[in-house]
Design goal:
Length: 306
């Protein structure tokens, strides 16, 4: 009887082992299939088959903060995003690439490429990985984040952030208006290189938050020149004409700030009343969630002191 039991037990062990191996193989195959699963994204240029769970993303113009906020892994990124103070830590391992660095992009083995509609070599890039482009300003800054969410198969996460951010920004706007007055005006200006600019309501630098979400007032003179183009170049002499009761001044570290030594600037009421709030120019040109969160805190602290 013992002689019969041993071969039977050995056969049972072999069967269990084989079943276990088969299950492991099935799990590996399922995992592989999941990694290779695709969804259809309705892009500006038509449907594009993109990975349902992209693992290696290349960003060729903006949107890095959108992808990062949704948990995306960026392996290649353009220089402006790489140098943004709000994004630098999160992009420290990403390679700097341009739309002409085709060989470098191939080496990064991306499974998704994202950029603006103005990038070059779209056809060649599409041969490397699914490539999706967006026209800057075609949709508002919050809708843009939801579009990135759809692309990354994370639409619900994107919508949740948008709803929460809108609520917080609107609440902060109410507090600010209660403090500075319903009729107070705010200008957003920038010192870049040797140039000075004033901005409309959709040109980053906090403009979307101030004018769209918080509904603070833009000076009429700024509306006249910046509503359509989004920005307007100023000379020092006419600077006072475009200054609001409060000024947000986006200033780059290497900008020419000699205008601040002129009488025209010093005599602006906002300047004389210490109502100029200086924002770091580097990285201010983005409207992604990470940058927007930083700008919202800056604006709350500047106006409310908390």
């Amino acid at each position: 009887m013992k002689k019969l039991i041993f071969p039977f037990m050995l056969l049972l062990v072999l069967l269990i082992s084989a079943c276990g191996q088969e299950e492991a193989n099935d799990n590996n195959n399922t995992s592989k299939e999941q990694n290779e699963e695709f969804i259809t994204y309705q892009s500006e240029n038509g449907p594009v088959e993109v990975p349902a769970n992209p693992q290696r993303i290349v960003l060729l113009s903006g949107f890095a903060g959108n992808v990062l906020q949704l948990g995306g892994n960026i392996v290649g990124v353009e220089e402006w995003s790489k140098n943004s103070p709000a994004l630098a830590d999160k992009l420290k391992d990403a390679e700097v690439v341009t739309d002409e660095d085709l060989e470098k992009i191939i080496e990064l083995e991306p499974d998704l490429i994202i950029g603006l509609s103005t990038i070059k070599n779209v056809d060649k890039l599409s041969q490397i990985a699914p490539t999706v482009t967006y026209t800057w300003g075609k949709v508002d800054y919050l809708t843009q984040h939801i579009e990135i969410g759809k692309l990354l198969n994370k639409e619900e996460e994107a919508k949740a952030w948008v709803d929460d951010f809108k609520a917080r920004a609107e609440a902060a706007g109410e507090e600010i208006k209660a403090k500075i007055g319903e009729d107070a005006t705010v200008s957003v200006m920038e010192s870049y290189g040797k140039d000075l600019y004033v901005f409309g309501d959709n040109f980053a630098r906090g403009t979307e938050i101030l004018y769209q979400a918080m509904k603070l007032n833009m000076p009429d003179k700024v509306k006249e020149v910046a509503s359509e183009s989004g920005y307007y170049t100023l000379s020092t002499e006419v600077l006072p004409e475009y200054a609001g009761d409060y000024i947000i001044l986006s200033k780059y570290s290497d900008a020419d700030t000699s205008f601040q030594e002129t009488e025209a600037y010093k005599n602006i009421p906002a300047v004389k009343n210490n109502r100029v709030f200086v924002m770091d120019g580097e990285g201010a040109s983005f409207s992604d969630p990470i940058t927007l969160e930083k700008q919202l805190e800056f604006l709350k602290t500047s106006f409310l002191g908390n």
